[in-house]
Amino acid sequence: MWISVVVGAGGLLGHALAAPDIHAKRSVLSDLSNGFYHSWKFGSVITNNILHLNGLDGGLLPGDSNANNTYLVNVDLTKAFNLSDGSAYKLSVIPTSVPNLKDQALWSSQDNSTLFAYGGRGASNTALDNGLWEYDLKNQQWNLQTTSVKPVRLEGGSHANAPSINAAFWVGGFQSSDTTPAITNATLEFATGMLRFNTSTQSVDSLPAPFTPVQNGALNFLNIGGGLLVYIGGETPEKQNGINMTFTVNDWNHVWVYSIAYSAWFNQSTSGNAPSRTDFCTVSTFDDSTKTFQIWVMGGADFNSRNVLSDVSFLSIPSFRWYQAIPTQGLYSRMSMSCEVYGSQILGIGGRLEWDEGAGAGSYGTPAFVYDANQQEVVSSFRPSATSYSAPSSVTDNVMTSPYPSSWADPTLRAIFVSPAPSPSPPPSSSSPQATTLQSDSNGLGGGAIAGAVIGGIAALTLSSALVWFLMRRRRQWQQRALADAKSKEGHPTDHNAVPAEVHGDALPYEFDATAARSELDATQKFVQLPSDELPRHELA
Question: Which pTM was predicted?
Fold first, then answer.
């Protein structure tokens, strides 16, 4: 279904046609050598070994103190550096015509040439809702998107970057007086559905999301089976629009999984335990030895007590099992963080030490810290050589005995992870280590495959025995005929040393054509056709 315009509260899309707005770069501070106080919440993304951070307020920076200045931060990840070294964080000021927003999504194009900024709340005053902005990395220029359909600005949603398939996603969130000038009171207007942005054609469409309206969860992209999205946590409002609403914390004993290839959501149960939280961040890693993904959960706070959490959890997929890692401590336990991952190094960026909107949120001397997933501890320096990631031993031990969940939400979801899997379309080509087809059950062949192998073996043995008997019988017949012929010739005695005549080549029995091998269906595998009246497909423009 093609989306042209969607209007009204609760929708993800609205009107607008906008002309390009190109501005030259200007500079105030060139780096953070003068120090750092705090900032939340950055938009973040890694392209071409550069960490990009969007939304740093100049008003909180020593040496600037101008709240009208907003910076784009770039960190070179090809060089080792101490995370407390302010000179490693390079700054470029963002033109004042670009809205000064926090809590934005920052996405990237497949060729890593362009960044896209969407959503967020006004840092000081609410600016006009003017859609997506793009940043040309080569020319260092900001441009307003010129699509015929523009998404409504939202905050409190969850987003995922999927450059390998030219896509980015945003699900949930709401409009408020911090996002929309037309809202002048404390009303929250929640969106329903999921927004998909095509980073190649720069088109936008809306997809269903059965768990919306929702806020403050996490959305993760896994590059397998044509692409999967995994949604974790969040809070559900008592109604779609209102003031001072009550929220229900969503259980963490299940996750929502969206198959991009099948345009379908699956509510998959999980095992193990992970404490629910709000305002947290996630990253995904892939371990090649076990062919498993781990979604790491960092930071956040308990929604009811408002206590900031230090524990670190991760969800291993495809077992869909939660594990607990070694927690962070002190200044590294934060809420409202952004997270990115480089090899085994999880970068925690910005955030609040306490649930407070002002100075009570606390301060720290550097925008980022590194939690090494291999060592499960915070380290003081970034190492570009730490590109190898290995799943924790607790995962590798369990993969040998329980590689999959005890039950699947749907046979289609199972087929994505357990080979052979139906492929409605070939997976996108990517250099990412996540572009991997997982192996079949480690416990061996399924019952249907074992039965097929036994039957096939018996059939092959029977055919072989029959063929041997047939050849021996024919050989004895030729031998007897040869002996009879010898006795009838001129009364000569039989020569017992004579070699019996061979079967002529033309008399050999035909063999089965090697290309005519039997094909068996694995009894454990089912091809599932999605109902045509549920979850219609949406195609990228």
Answer: 0.75
